[in-house]
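[job 0412] stage=fold_complex status=start
inputs:
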Amino acid sequence: MTIDGKTRLIGVIGDPITGVRSPEWFNEMFERQGINAAVVPMAVKAQDLQPVFEGLKRIGNLDALIVTMPHKGRMSALLDELGPAAQALGSVNAVRRMPDGRWMGDMFDGRGCVEGLREKGHDVSGRSVFIRGIGAAGAAVAFAMAEAGTKTLVLDDLDSSRVDAVAERVQAAHPGTRVIVRPIQLQADYDFAVNCTPLGMKAGDPLPFDPEVLPESTVVVDIITKPEVTPLLERAQATGHRIHAGKHMHAAQAVEAAKFFGFDPAK
Amino acid sequence: MTIDGKTRLIGVIGDPITGVRSPEWFNEMFERQGINAAVVPMAVKAQDLQPVFEGLKRIGNLDALIVTMPHKGRMSALLDELGPAAQALGSVNAVRRMPDGRWMGDMFDGRGCVEGLREKGHDVSGRSVFIRGIGAAGAAVAFAMAEAGTKTLVLDDLDSSRVDAVAERVQAAHPGTRVIVRPIQLQADYDFAVNCTPLGMKAGDPLPFDPEVLPESTVVVDIITKPEVTPLLERAQATGHRIHAGKHMHAAQAVEAAKFFGFDPAK
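[job 0412] stage=fold_complex status=done
writing structure:
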């Protein structure tokens, strides 16, 4: 890729930023399609989001931002307009300048998880899904699962007030899905069991749950991308389960964000 | 070049921005030297400089800025520290974050002009120099010429108050140079006649001065880079003068700014 005076910019904002993969994914697409644009990383601390965004909005050739931790929630409050998922979740992972100059954001993390599963032959429609960890990512996954037509959604988190709040919003938006909070027992007949906690990113983390108690038909899903095969997924392989790694969600989420920015990644 | 989560950023801010050449120059150097950094263009309107800079300062992996029109003057007022040329001129073309987090700027346009001439075998020390157009660029060139030891410096601008002010500051800083404002006649025995007006950038511009009246020994210098051979330089060739194009100043100025940012362009 070559950057010159006519290059359009998209920033990725987060803290820490060094592990983000979207610059490589997007820039490879731009190069393949001959688009003069670049996605660049921007290390922004939580407390600096507002002044940074105020500045970035005034850069005429900066068209969009990819929003990562810890800004997904706070950024949603700084925008002029929110898409449906962002509205329900109160968080965004992609924002863009609209033709009239206003800024709009939406959240594609959850849809990325659903699309990533679909691409690997796993349709969640009509199925039962267990999700442990209902922070920003878990809430996005829960919302997208219900949106995709899951029959039963079981949400589990140590913080009972936040899981209750998310369950209520998902249930209200998608009455066709049965939303259950904190099951007494894990060994229900889930079709999918999803880890949305950060457990598995650091060496020595305990497992978010033990797949041994799950029926063999359950697909064990992790949304962590580093390591690619988390201890949970290793353990699930050992207990005879099919696994689905975080990289699929990440790739599918980037496709959704790219479409939102006006690109066609399939080209 | 490949941009990833570890890439360091340097912005080029200006309006218009599409014609800047520093991204290509710097990024070619970074690629050659295996440095994970990128210079990216940023279109920033005059009235937006302060909020944009407030935001950019808070981006942890943005280490420096290249400052072009119309921000060179205003930016100098937003910095914590100024180098000697910036202090004398009240304008900057390069700013960087220092190890203690403060921001420092300096002006390398003028030094670029002197160095560009030197590289082509033209030493201005002890010589007489005529400069037409004493805006930010002309003032920078005047200051650097005096710093390099010109014997006589003749400054000419339609705006008599601004040329008087610059002449006074250059004279005070460099008493060894004789600084003269607005000559009655152009046909003095200048060794160098320099155009620092924007005349020649647009088709149909009048010449900033007619080289025909200059002795044949005078080197005619333009600081405009587009077109590479301006109507002034074309005319000077026709009248038998040696010419020196703006690209030399631009290249030398980039070298000076790169050194200020901590790189070694000679590597």
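[job 0412] summary: The CA atoms of residues 5 and 254 of chain A lie 26 Å apart.
[job 0412] exit 0
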